[in-house]
Each structure stands twice: as C-alpha cells, then as structure tokens.
Design a protein that fits this description.
Blueprint (H helix, E strand, L loop, with lengths): L5 E5 L3 H11 L5 E5 L2 H10 L4 E5 L7 H10 L8 E5 L5 H9 L4 E4 L4 H37 L4 H31 L4 H24 L14
Helix pairs in contact: 2-3, 5-6, 5-7, 6-7
InterPro entries: Bact_response_regulator (IPR050595), CheY-like_superfamily (IPR011006), Sig_transdc_resp-reg_receiver (IPR001789)
Protein name: CheY-like chemotaxis protein
Pfam family, one: Response_reg
Length: 225
C-alpha cells in the first residue's frame, strides 16, 4: 500500500486554508493545516512533508521568519516552500521570498490549476525519494545478512537481483520524470531536485553493482591515456 505524501498548508485565515484544501484535494494526498508559523514549526517536528505552502502575511511570526526557521533545521531544510501572498511590493519583495529559501513565489489570487500542477511536481519528487530510501534500506539489510553468513551466496545473489530489478524500475521512473520536467520547462528548482535524485540513484546503482561479482567495475585505463 503506497503511503500518501503530506502537504503542509500554513495560513492564519481559515477561509484561505479551506480554499487550498479544495484546490489540492484532487491530488489525493494528506493535507495538514497550520494557522501560524509557530504551529507549522511544531508540525514539522514530528512529520515529514513533501512541500509547504506558506502565507507571507501572518500576525506574529510571518512567512519569511517561519521559512528562516525551517531552513535552519537539518530535518526540514530541504523541504520545498511555496510562498503565497496577497500583496506584491515589486521585485525586491519577491527576491526576499527566494532569499528566504522559497522554490516559488505566487501572488493571490492565483490560478488553481497552476498551483495544483506545481504542488504535484514536488509530491512526485518526494515519492521518488521515498522509493530511493526504501531501496537503500533493503540494500543495507542485504549487506548485514551477507556479513553474518557468507555461505548463503545463492540466496544473496537472488536478493541482489531483486534489488537490482527494483532499483531499475525507480531509475526508469526518475528518468521519465526528469525528461517531463525538462520538456515542460518547469521551475528550475524542481528540475534541480530531480537531477539530485538521479545522482543519488547513480550512487546506489554503483554500490549495488560493486556487490555483484558478475557486474564488477571495469579496470581503470587512466594510466594508459
């Protein structure tokens, strides 16, 4: 059963939260409300989120200050933040949003279809990262099992083959997602995140190949050049 991604909605106005829920409900993910920056930070202490939709103008801790706290925490610094604001003071105000760590900055009223599409990209990237972590966890278990009993070589080979097949499926999906993002000229941040995911997959593939005696790395030829 595929676990749903969590999306954090931060706004001090209940009607705005209700509108966001109506727009994003079609994504069929878990939507979590926070009515203040402080409440958002508390939610981030215990749950993992695919993306944060953060209102800029809030009493007390505003969106910029909330984002600064999020980016200072190691656990949450890589979560994409989309700023939502009802005001626009020009390029300087927008730049402040990006400087605070936002991946996007959207002025209200916004196109519901555009917002849903942007959020869906980050949800998909999050799900691919979750798959990658699961494959890495399986690989670690395999390594531990191999160290405990080297005599189970046939079983180990079977598990390695299964891991390789699962990783290949994730690699194919990540490649297709990266191509889609490039073709659609999506946000640069989303493209960069997808590229980062592919680099992680490449590293995992090299580690997996190194464990399989049948797919060892070719000898270096740098000294012959």
């Amino acid at each position: 059963m595929v676990q749903k991604a969590k999306i954090l909605l931060v706004d001090d106005r209940p009607e705005n939260l209700l509108a966001l829920e109506a727009i994003l409900s079609a994504l069929d993910q878990t939507l979590v409300r926070a009515s203040s920056g402080e409440e958002a930070l508390k939610a981030l202490l215990t749950d993992d989120f695919a993306v944060i939709l953060l209102d800029v103008q809030m009493p007390g801790m505003d969106g910029f200050e909330t984002a600064a706290h999020i980016k200072r925490r190691e656990r949450t610094r890589d979560i994409p933040i989309i700023f939502l604001t009802a005001i626009n003071h020009g390029p300087h105000h927008t730049f402040r949003g990006y400087a605070a760590g936002a991946v996007d900055y959207i002025s209200k009223p916004f196109d519901p279809w555009v917002l849903r599409a942007k959020v869906s990209v980050f949800v998909e990237l999050y799900m691919k990262n979750c798959q990658l972590r699961e494959q890495a966890s399986l690989l670690r278990l395999q390594l531990e099992g191999s160290e405990k009993d080297s005599g189970e070589s046939k079983e180990s080979a079977g598990l390695l083959a299964e891991l390789s097949a699962r990783l290949a499926a994730v690699e194919e999906q990540a490649e297709a997602l990266t191509k889609q993002l490039n073709d659609e000229s999506t946000d640069a941040a989303a493209v960069a995140t997808a590229a980062h995911l592919e680099r992680k997959l490449t590293g995992l593939r090299r580690a997996l190949d190194a464990l399989d005696p049948g797919t060892g790395s070719p000898p270096s030829v740098s000294s012959q050049n």
